[in-house]
Amino acid sequence: MVGQESEGHEAGRAHGGDGADRRGSPRYPLRVELRVLSRENNVLVLSHTLDISRSGACVRSQRDLPIGSRVEVSFLRGMVRPPLRVEGEVVRRVVGEGRGFAGLGVAFTGLDGERQGELDALIAAHVHARAGKV
Which residue in 47, 45, 48 sits closest to 29, CA to CA? Predict the structure, then answer.
């Protein structure tokens, strides 16, 4: 099915017909807690990322949303800081091999310079924290 990918190493990649990765920024296999709200579909997902980049994320979800759905993604940043909210669009469904639906590919849209900087800082903090655990 168009728009579907299997779970695993390739799940977070946007491919053209030739299989080449089309993303312009690196994707990190990080677990970032978040909420995804689709007002048009009346769906709220409380979950985490499977991977994330400056331009989008693969979100673990048992709830399906149609490709093209507009969503608000709120990255949770602890008790002291408010969530980082960014707009996005569902661009892919991630299907786990033999396990059914596994998640959503979300492309971030309309990021201004300030929000992009906050997202970059969020990713860098998680990369740094993960490097300290290895």
Answer: 48
The answer to the question of residue 79 being in a domain is: yes
Q: Looking at the domain assignment, is residue 80 inside a domain?
A: yes
Q: Return the CATH number at 88.
A: 2.40.10.220
DSSP letter string, 57-108: EEEE-SS---TT-EEEEEE--TTTSPPEEEEEEEEEEEEETTTEEEEEEEEE
Q: What is the pLDDT of residues 15-37, one digit of tens each?
A: 444 444 555 789 999 999 999 99
Q: Is pTM beyond 0.85 here? A: no
Specify if 3 maps to a domain: no
